[in-house]
What does this fold into?
Amino acid sequence: MKIGCVKEIKNNEYRVGLTPDNVKAYVAAGHHVYMEKGAGRGSGFSDNEYVDAGASLIDNAADVWHLVDMMVKVKEPLEEEYPFFHEGLILYTYLHLAADRQQTDALLAGKVKAVAYETIQEKDGTLPCLAPMSQIAGRLSIQEGAKYLEKRFGGEGILLAGVPGTPKANVVILGGGTVGMNACKIAVGMGANVTILDVNLRRLEELDNMFGAHVQTLYSSDSNIEKSVRDADLVIGSVLIPGGSTPKLFKRRYLPEMKDGAVFVDVAIDQGGCGESSHVTTHDEPVYIEEGVVHYCVGNMPGAVPRTSTIALTNATLRYGLAIAAGGLEAACADPAVASGVNCYLGSLTNRNVAEAHGYAFTELGTLIG
It folds into this structure.
């Protein structure tokens, strides 16, 4: 199979879909890999490394798109890339379609076979291609939140850990999944007062056993959220429904009750966000202030640390990519995990959560591929 990888064009996105080691693995399996020149530079990988690994370098992205059977990316295609879609192309990347009707329509119209990293789900319920970026985003959320608590960014001017004789910051984490747990780990490590909320009581028990007296666990009711954020200095939104739109747990009405200069980091923004007052920002202009609360809503947070993110992501995605390349997407879908990643197939929408988000018809993948 002809495998392609192009430079990401999203704002301040420096990750790349394939590392030189990944290229070696595809070439060793008998595939041909085409890399756009400079695609890996932002993550610290030179063109020479890709050539040494067996890739063919192509001068521009358009030629790569037209050459290949499968395109491996990091972020969803932007509007400028929609004209490169063609029938039967396998697109393997993050898609986040529930928050992006325009992209959904373009993929359906182009009859693309679109496989989303974020919906690949193993039998045990884990999301292996989403997990590494969730880990990074969770840890970054505290790092970024601590920075934007500084007065010069509009924050209240509080040090997350405090010092002897001063109060520590109150950190509230909405959601105890991978993002929330990793945010909690960093916040606890920095010495903040941490409250974490979730609707899954078993998960709260696990977090309580993990962090002990260092955290306060609460059931995620509207009342508990409102009480918690009222005294919060930093709120982390880390709620996820695989492939679906994120519920708006952080209400706009909470803002007037919160401290001036408190910070809200909406990690779920690439799925639409879990805050009613959230809208997507970029690394160029990461924050805005609404009713005194600083909102950080960058849609590609892990792109800020591209070397770490690229290696972590491709460690997870390579196995499924090789399976797709080996016998085609249809054969690879014998593995339910790969099948769960297919969001669009030759003009049909095959992810139920995405279909519900847009009010579109849903088609079982099995009826299309047998």
